[in-house]
Design a protein that fits this description.
Lyase, Ornithine Decarboxylase, Chain A, domain 1, 2 domains, TIM Barrel, eight-stranded parallel β-sheet, elongated, nine-stranded mixed β-sheet, 362 residues, alpha/beta, homodimer, 11 helices
Chain lengths: 362, 362
Amino acid sequence: MRITDLDTPSVIIDLDVMERNIDRMHAHLREHGINIRPHIKNHKIPAIAHLQMRKGASGITCQKLGEAEVMVNAGITDVLIAYNIVGDLKLDRLSRLAHQAKISVIADSEYIVNGLAKMATRTGVKLDVFVEYDIAAQRSGARTVEQAVDLARLIERTPGLAYKGLLSFRGYSPDPEYVRRTGDQYERVVSALKRDGIETSVISSGGTVEAWTAWPDICPWGVTECRPGLYTFYDRVKVAAGVATLEDCALKIVTTVVSRPTETMAVFDAGEKTLTEARYRFGGEEGCGLLVEYPNAIVTGLFEEHGIVDTSRCASQPRVGERVTIIPNYSSLVIDLADEVYGVRDELVETVWPVAARGKVK
Amino acid sequence: MRITDLDTPSVIIDLDVMERNIDRMHAHLREHGINIRPHIKNHKIPAIAHLQMRKGASGITCQKLGEAEVMVNAGITDVLIAYNIVGDLKLDRLSRLAHQAKISVIADSEYIVNGLAKMATRTGVKLDVFVEYDIAAQRSGARTVEQAVDLARLIERTPGLAYKGLLSFRGYSPDPEYVRRTGDQYERVVSALKRDGIETSVISSGGTVEAWTAWPDICPWGVTECRPGLYTFYDRVKVAAGVATLEDCALKIVTTVVSRPTETMAVFDAGEKTLTEARYRFGGEEGCGLLVEYPNAIVTGLFEEHGIVDTSRCASQPRVGERVTIIPNYSSLVIDLADEVYGVRDELVETVWPVAARGKVK
C-alpha cells in the first residue's frame, strides 16, 4: 500500500525521520550522562514506546494512569506517572498496576502523599515517589525549599513509600531568570535532605526543549534523568522553538483539496477535529499548519472539518481533488484525535498503528 | 451510580436540559414552518440522533462520510452529507451507503458533480444533490449566481443525479451586510432555474445561531430546512452568541482539583486533551471554560492534561481532592475527544453512551 492509497485525512509518521529523531535525542542525553525516560504523550503508541526502550530508554513517563495501563498491558515494565493521583478509584487502579510493573509517582502536597500512603498500606504495594518542584511557576509542584523538604521527609517516613527524588517541568515560555533561581533552590533541597540522611537519587527534568537546551546553562543543578516527549515527532511549535527543523517533523496529515471557492483560496478536508485548534500557541500569521507542497500558503482558519488556505502568495494553485500534506502546529494533540496512524517509509505504508492510549485522560 | 461515583475527568450530559433544548429548537423551527435536519456533529451519538428523529427531525446531517456510516449502521435512514465528497475510496463508500439509506450530498464545483456522476452511473445509485452556496464568504460553496445556476443545471441533466436545492452555512461572525446581499442572490438562482423548469425544492440553512436569529431579518429568501447542531448541548460560545444561557449548557466535564500551587491558584485534571484548546474563539480574559462551583474563577490556561485556574476573585478556595464541574467553550470539540459520555438526571447516571462517531473524519 502506498501513501496515495490512503483515504484522507490520514495521519502519517515518517519512520526514517522518527527513528533518526529518537537516535539523536538518545545519543545527546547519553553524551551528557542523563538517563532517558521518554514521555509517551506525543505518540500514545506501545510499539513506539518499545522502540524507545530498545534505543536506550530505562523506562517511560505517562501523564495519566490510563496511559500507564495501556503501556503496562503492552509489556512496558517501568513507568513513571508524572501526575498527582487523587481519589480511591484511581488509587485502586494504581495498586493493581503496581503489582504488574515498576511504577513510580509524584506528589506536591501532603494530601497526595496521604492518599498514596493509605493505598500502599492497604494493598502492600511499595512505591517510589518524586516530589514535584515547579521550576517555572506555571502549574502544579512545590514552590519553596521548605515545602519540598517537608514533603520528602514525609514520604521517606511513610511506610510503603520511598522518596526517590525531585521532578520538574519547565513549561511553556518560562522566565529564564525564575528558572535559574529555582536551580539554587534545588541544591538547597538536596543538601537539606542529605543532612537528614535522605538521598535524592534522581533529579528528573522534563521536555524536549529542555533536553536540547538546558545543560549546562540553565539547569546546573545536577539533573540525572530527562523525560522528553515531543522529540519523537516534533512539529511547528518545536521548529519555532529552535530545537528541530521542518525535516525533523515526522508526523504529517495527508489531506485532499475539496473546494476552491476563489482563485486564491483552497479548502482541504481536515479541520479542528483532525489538526486541533493549536493556533494560539503560534501567533496569528503563521497559521494553523504548514502545507508541505505549498510552503507559501497560509492556513488561515479551521472549521471543525474544513481547513481554509490563502494561496495568494503561491506560484501555482492547488486543484480540487489534489492531495496536500500538512505539518501540524502541535503533534501531541493531533495524535490524540486519531484512531490510528500510518507508519510510512519513502512512499510506502509499512505499518498501521492504533493510537492505543488515545483519549486515556483518566 | 451517582455522578460522584464517576472517575474524572468525565463528560456528563444533563438529559433534562438536553431534552428541553431539543424540544425548544424543534418547536421554534416548526413554528416557522422550517423542516428540521439536525447536524449530529455536536453529539456523534446514535441514541441522541434517534431522539431528535422522534422529536420531529425528518433526517440528520453529517459532515463526514464516516459519521454517516455510523448513523446508518445505527438505523438512521435519511442522511444529508453536507460535505464535498472527493476520490474513488469515498465514492465507493458513498455508493454502498446509498444502497442502505436515503443519502443526499452537496457539490460546489463541476469536479465534485463529475465524481458523483461517475459513481452513480457505475453503481446504479440515485442521489439528490444540493448546490452549496456560501452566504458568508468563509469556506466552500459557490460564490456567484452564475456558478450556482450552472452547477444546478449540470446536476439536473446528469443521469443518476437530481438537483435538490441550495445549501448554506453562515459561518462564524459573518458580515451581516454580505449575508443580506447573498439573500438576493439566492432568489436570483431560484428564479433563473425556475425559468428553465428546474425546481429548487429545498433551501437548507445551517447553524444554531442562524436557527434562532435568521428569520425573517437576515434570511428572507425562503429557507425551508435548517440544520442546527450545537443546540443539543450548547456551550459558552453559544451563550456568548446570545442564543442560550448557562442553564442550557447540557454538556459539562467533571474534574478533580489535583494541586493548589499557591493560595489563589488551582489545577484540575482536565487539559487540552479533554477540553480542547477552544480559547481563541473566545478572547483571552474569559478563559478556557467556566467553573460551575466557582463562577468568579478564571481558567487561565490549559496544558495537555492540566487545567490552570486563577481563584483570586473567589470568596472561598477549592481544596485538593475537591470535584469541580466545567462548562466548556466549545462542546462539539469536547465530544470528539471523549470515548464515552454519561447521561445524567439530577445526580444519577442514567446511561453511558459511547461516542460512536468520534474521530470519524474520513
